[in-house]
Design goal:
Elements lengths: L6 E2 L2 H12 L9 E6 L5 H14 L5 E5 L5 E5 L6 E4 L7 H16 L12 E4 L6 E6 L8
Parallel strand pairs: 5-6
Antiparallel strand pairs: 1-4, 2-7, 3-4, 6-7
């Protein structure tokens, strides 16, 4: 890592940065999935699990930045604290829960990442866990080296 902390982008990262500059609202490169479970969700354990995943895969801790000279570089953050957005759907009837969860997952999958902010791992969950869903996204190709 250079003295200023920023390393040059790989060719793949340069392409992703270029595409992101053209359309910062695009979700075309998201890798996401949704899981359904029964029972209560241990949100702190979920956060620790995603944090440990990021510790094993440094690409998930990378964010981009622009140096004063205008060049773009990558920074590896010390810690990755995944975000967990919570949406409580347990008070809805079963059919309405399914529809609402599908809406939330679709909406969230279309939410763009900010390449300069980092946090490549994020999750949305129903903390009560009664017929809830957990949607996770991360590992967008811009983090590949």
């Amino acid at each position: 890592m250079p003295a200023d902390g920023g390393a040059p982008l790989s060719h793949a990262q340069q392409r992703q940065w270029f595409l992101w500059q053209l359309d910062r609202e695009s979700s075309a490169y998201h890798l996401s999935s949704a899981l359904r479970w029964r029972g209560a969700l241990d949100v702190p354990a979920l956060i620790r699990s995603f944090g440990q995943l990021a510790d094993r895969h440094l690409q998930l801790k990378v964010r981009f930045g622009v140096k004063p000279d205008g060049s773009v570089c990558q920074y590896v953050d010390e810690a990755c604290i995944p975000t967990v957005e919570q949406a409580d759907v347990h008070d809805l009837k079963a059919e309405a829960q399914t529809v609402r969860v599908q809406q939330l997952v679709q909406q969230w999958q279309q939410t763009p990442f900010d390449l300069e902010a980092g946090a490549a791992v994020a999750c949305r969950a129903d903390p009560a866990g009664r017929r809830g869903a957990c949607a996770g996204r991360g590992g967008a190709p811009h983090h590949c080296r």
